[in-house]
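User: I'll paste a sequence; please echo it back and then give the predicted structure.

Assistant: Echoing your sequence first, then the prediction.
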Amino acid sequence: MNDGTSRREFIGTLAAFSLFPLEQEKPELILYNGNILTVNDREPRAQAVAIARGRFLAVGSDSDVLNLASAASKKIDLGRKTVIPGFIDAHSHPAEAGLMHLRMVDCDLRSISAIQAALRERAAKTPPGEWVLGFKYDDTKTEEGRPLTVADLDAAVPDHPVHVEHRGGHTTYSNSLAFRKAGIDEKTPDPPGGKIDRDPATGKLTGRVAESGNALFDKAIPQNFTRDDHREGVKLISKMLARTGITSATEAQGSPTDLRAYQDAYESGDLLYRAYCFINFHFLDAMIAAGNRTGLGHEWVRIGAVKLVCDGSISERTARLSTPYEGRPNDYGILVMTEEELYTHGRKAHLAGWQIGTHANGDVGIDTTLRVYERLQKESPLRDPRFRLEHCTVVNDGLIARMKALGAIPTPFSTYVYYHGEKMRYYGADRLNHMFALRSFLDAGIRATQASEPRTKKI
């Protein structure tokens, strides 16, 4: 505590942290002998904190805070270690990632041969005909310097359907049996908002499917997770997030099942972070009919925005751009939903009092999403709709000005610059100057967030 701060000021200031009068509340935990960053300009560093009921009771010097202890208070000597506030991850997929870690093959490996070996090992333990599922595969991080092919997966596991998800979550790679199970062959047309890759020379399937094309696999793959599996997935990912200092996270593509899993994990004492659970638009009608909307819940589990998806992925090069990808003159990316589809679902959510969060990566995707938000606000203005632009990667001055005018919230994921730096060549040097533009958002007075998208990295 600064010398100029009196004992009375100390007690009075700290009482505001408690739900109960300070004299009636005793600390459950005291952390002392530390370098505590308070994020308080008046006193940016402290030696000790006292905590009760999940709230700070006191922040200050060792002597002042230790004097608040009772016989039952637990005390931890930090040994001058630095303590910082918990991180808030504004866009992630923890419930889904937890399930993946429970059941799927981790394909975050540095060679195609290693991925084949991992899939082969899982197949040997899998009953005949059942699916072998992989996740966290990254097409630019294997030593072969090329993506997985249907031939690679057929050679590894010929007798089970194999389906491997890219760590970005927007593309998958499958073997021949998986394509047959999904009803996909060379004659299957690309669905709206999706793409089934074919060899340009032969027309044969390459193994890769992008965006809404993956719905064909979703229908074919049995969803046999139990309620306890979902809770266990949240329990597992909770430990992983807590280990990295994340204390709050947005579940960016949730469902009623995820919401229940969070509540189950909370009630069993296994939820270690505060969850703001977006709900996929497919469940919006049922949620509205049940009287649910954004904000319902409690401190640990709360319903977030309804989730829409405008375009594709940065790491998988499917984001919708106004000019083509470098070296791919006919490839502008993918619009997953049309503007009218976004408006129809968005209007229903807007009128029912829901926040809206729309995945929009490319400049065309962001422009399209902003037009929908502007239309909704013009037709049915709300005081503070808190429209969100999930990822909001490729921007320009005009888009930033429109975000500012709307009070929209961009959610960039700067982690991509680190984890996917080798992919940035597909965007070109000039476009890269307008990507992951956190500094531009801040300079414009826009309150941007930060996010990890943890399917994309090790936690």
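Residues 7-85 form a domain with the Urease, subunit C; domain 1 fold (CATH 2.30.40.10). The chain is about 30% helix and 20% strand.
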